[in-house]
C-alpha cells in the first residue's frame, strides 16, 4: 500500500492492513492542495493518498487497471455563510482529487452555506442555480464527480440536501435527508421521503446524509437495492466520535457496502466538529481516516469479497411472539 503526503506527519491516516510505503505527493498535487489552503483561508492542508493493495481484499479497476474505484473526501472547516469561500474550496478539492485519479469527491453536510451558520435560512440555495453551474464546470475540468451537501430552498421550504454531479458535470442524483437530527434541524427543514441511487462508472451508488447512516434499516434497504457504495456528507460534532470509530465501519461490514463519510473539522458557532472522516471498505475495514484538521483523503476501494462479507441478511431469523 502507498501513502502519499505533503508533510512528514502520518497521524491523519491509519493503515489497518498491509505494509505502508511512504512517498511524496507529486508536484501538481502539492500545488493544488496548497491552493486549497490559500483560497479557503485554512491552516496548512494535509493531503493523504492511500493507493494500491490492502491485504485480504480483492481489487479491480473499472478500466482494467487492477484496483478498486478511487474515491476521495474533503474534511474542512465550515465556511460559516461565506458561499464564495465554500465554492473556492470545493473547486480546489475536486481539482486535487481529479489530479490523483479519484472518480468522485465527497464534501460535508450543508457545506454550502455551512451547517451551523446563523444565517442558514437566508443563505439557502436553489437547485440548479449559478453555484451549481460553477461546480459542474469544476467537475468537467477535473474529470471527477462531486457529492456536496447544501441547504436547499424549494417547494416553499428548506431541505437538507446532497447533490451528485458526475465527471462531466451533469447532475446524476439529488437526495433530501430523511432522518433530521435534533430540534434545530426539525425546525429548519422538511424531511425527505425517498432513497436515491445512481450508477457511477458501473458501480451502484446510494446517498445518505449524516444521521441517516446510523439507521440500519436505511443502509439495509439500499444494500437490498444492489448498492455497493454509500456516499455520506455529514456534520458530526463532539462528543459523538463513536459514530466514526464504530457505527460507520459496522454498517459497512454488516451490509457489505463501502462508505465514504465526509465530516467537518474545527468549530462553527456553538459546535465543535469531530473530524475523523473516513473511507470504509465493504468488510468493515477502515481504508483511510483523517483526524481533527483539514485533510483530503484519496483511496482505492476494496472489492466485495464473498469470503469476507457478512451473511446476516440471509441468516436472519425473525422471532414471532404470541
Low-confidence stretches: 1-25, 37-45, 52-67
Architecture per CATH nomenclature, i.e. the level-2 architecture: 4-Layer Sandwich
Shape call: globular
Q: Give the overall average pLDDT.
A: 85
Fill in the CATH topology. Nitrilase/N-carbamoyl-D-aminoacid amidohydrolase
Please work out how many helical segments DSSP would assign.
8
Largest sheet at a glance? 9 strands, mixed
Multimerization state: single chain
Largest sheet, order of strands side by side? Answer: 2-1-3-17-4-5-6-7-8
Describe the protein's topology.
Blueprint lengths: L1 E4 L15 E4 L2 H14 L5 E6 L18 E6 L7 H17 L4 E3 L13 H4 L6 H13 L2 E10 L2 E9 L5 E6 L5 H7 L8 E4 L2 E5 L8 H9 L4 E5 L8 H14 L2 E5 L4 E2 L2 E2 L5 E3 L5 E4 L5 E6 L11 H4 L7
Parallel strand pairs: 1-2, 3-17, 4-5, 5-6, 10-11, 11-12
Antiparallel strand pairs: 1-3, 4-17, 6-7, 7-8, 9-10, 12-15, 13-14, 15-16
Helix pairs in contact: 1-2, 2-4
Detailed description of the structure:
- This protein is an alpha/beta fold and 322 residues long.
- The protein has one domain: Carbon-nitrogen hydrolase (Nitrilase/N-carbamoyl-D-aminoacid amidohydrolase, 4-Layer Sandwich).
- It has eight helices and 17 strands.
- Strand 13 and strand 14 form a beta hairpin.
- The longest helix is centred in the N-terminal third of the chain and has 17 residues.
- The termini are far apart.
- The N terminus is likely disordered.
Amino acid at each position: 500500500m502507498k501513502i502519499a503526503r505533503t508533510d512528514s506527519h502520518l497521524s491523519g491516516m491509519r493503515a489497518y492492513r498491509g505494509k505502508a510505503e511512504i512517498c511524496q505527493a507529486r508536484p501538481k498535487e502539492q500545488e493544488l492542495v496548497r491552493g486549497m489552503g490559500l483560497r479557503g483561508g485554512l491552516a496548512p492542508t494535509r493531503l493523504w493518498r492511500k493507493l494500491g493493495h490492502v491485504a485480504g481484499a480483492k481489487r479491480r479497476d473499472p478500466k482494467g487497471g487492477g484496483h478498486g474505484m478511487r474515491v476521495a473526501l474533503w474534511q474542512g472547516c465550515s465556511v460559516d455563510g461565506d458561499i464564495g469561500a465554500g465554492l473556492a474550496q470545493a473547486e480546489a478539492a475536486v481539482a486535487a482529487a481529479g489530479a490523483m485519479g479519484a472518480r468522485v469527491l465527497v464534501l460535508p453536510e450543508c457545506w454550502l452555506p455551512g451547517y451551523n451558520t446563523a444565517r442558514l435560512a437566508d443563505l439557502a440555495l436553489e437547485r440548479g442555480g449559478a453555484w451549481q453551474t460553477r461546480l459542474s464546470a469544476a467537475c468537467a475540468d477535473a474529470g471527477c464527480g462531486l457529492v456536496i451537501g447544501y441547504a436547499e430552498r424549494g417547494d416553499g421550504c428548506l431541505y437538507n440536501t446532497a447533490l451528485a454531479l458526475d465527471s462531466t458535470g451533469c447532475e446524476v442524483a439529488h437526495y433530501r435527508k430523511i432522518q433530521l437530527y435534533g430540534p434545530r434541524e426539525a425546525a429548519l427543514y422538511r424531511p425527505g421521503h425517498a432513497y436515491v441511487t445512481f450508477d457511477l462508472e458501473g458501480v451502484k451508488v446510494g446517498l445518505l446524509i449524516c444521521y441517516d447512516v446510523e439507521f440500519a434499516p436505511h443502509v439495509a434497504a439500499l444494500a437490498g437495492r444492489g448498492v455497493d457504495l454509500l456516499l455520506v456528507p455529514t456534520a458530526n460534532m463532539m462528543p459523538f466520535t463513536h459514530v466514526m470509530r464504530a457505527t460507520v465501519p459496522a454498517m459497512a461490514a454488516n451490509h457489505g457496502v463501502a462508505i465514504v463519510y465526509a465530516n467537518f473539522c474545527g468549530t462553527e458557532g456553538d459546535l465543535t466538529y469531530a473530524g475523523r472522516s473516513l473511507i470504509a471498505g465493504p468488510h468493515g475495514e477502515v481504508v483511510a481516516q483523517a483526524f481533527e484538521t483539514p485533510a483530503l483523503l484519496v483511496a482505492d476501494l476494496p472489492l466485495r469479497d464473498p469470503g469476507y462479507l457478512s451473511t446476516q441478511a440471509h441468516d436472519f431469523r425473525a422471532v414471532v411472539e404470541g
